[in-house]
Fold this protein.
Amino acid sequence: MSRAPKRAARHRPSLLARLAKILYITVFTLSLIIVVGFAAVNIFAPKPTVDGQVTIPPRQETPSAPPAATDAPDAAATPGSDHLVLNRRDGVYTCLLLGVADQGGTDTIMLGVFDTNADTASLISIPRDTVVYYNGKYQKINATYAGGEEAVAAAVHDLLGVPVDYWVSVNLKAFSEIVNQIGGVYFDVPVDMDYEDPYQDLYIHIKAGYQLLNGKKAEGVMRCRSCYANADIGRAATQRAFLVALAKQTITPSNVGNVTSLINTFAKYVNTTMPLNDMVYFGTQAIGMDLDTALTTGSLEGEWISPYWQLDDQAVLELVNSLGIYQEQVPAQALHIVHP
């Protein structure tokens, strides 16, 4: 009897082949996610557009209120006129940060500059007692807040000759809630802080040194002004350092679960002209930035001549040029610094 022919043996894929297939599928899927994600960001959060030129009118013999912070070219400005036209660098944006207390007025004025091409940023404090000429008289720049955030933005634009693309107004209580939501912030408090103001319900008693701050103490660190021999100048330096520490300790994988509560806090305490899609764009651009090397901080130099902080014209001009907002060097006439 003849035997039935043997059936050809089926070869099962080797383990190596199966792993290679899984790896291929994984790489393909990740690539697809990256491509789709990149496309989505560009569709729903495209690169913000701003005017490419800024027209700055000359300082008048009799100072007047600063112009509106629209940065739109003056219709009367023509080549050869006495208006100054500066060309902006592509991918560089500015944002004015205002810290506001419940009682009104702004305790914190900072100008942020973000270079999305170089992945660098600057944060510059503007002392609240800086003298400006506004509404027909000399006054401190924080007093312009009586006209709202737009008035402060206009005053900063006129003073420094820089565009203000956005402003963000933050109630200082937001820092207290955010710090509590992320479990506190480690910070090196530079001086002993002891200050009480029952009218503002402000009680600050914090020892100097590196420590974990809860929300209440963090708010105290941000607000204490009389704790420094140089008053607002010392406080501004501490505020910048604290904001950097807060950013570093908030943008971490451990805080992914706090995203919803952080967004709710932002909506509750923050008022801004920045559209949501622009926030998304800047957020994606900021991912991966090393704040230790990519962020520079500083303040407008000057001296206290009661009752104002009067700016050092040359030092401020050099600082404005270092921000890299314009393609050309900013001339002195672009800044409208006053000295009563």
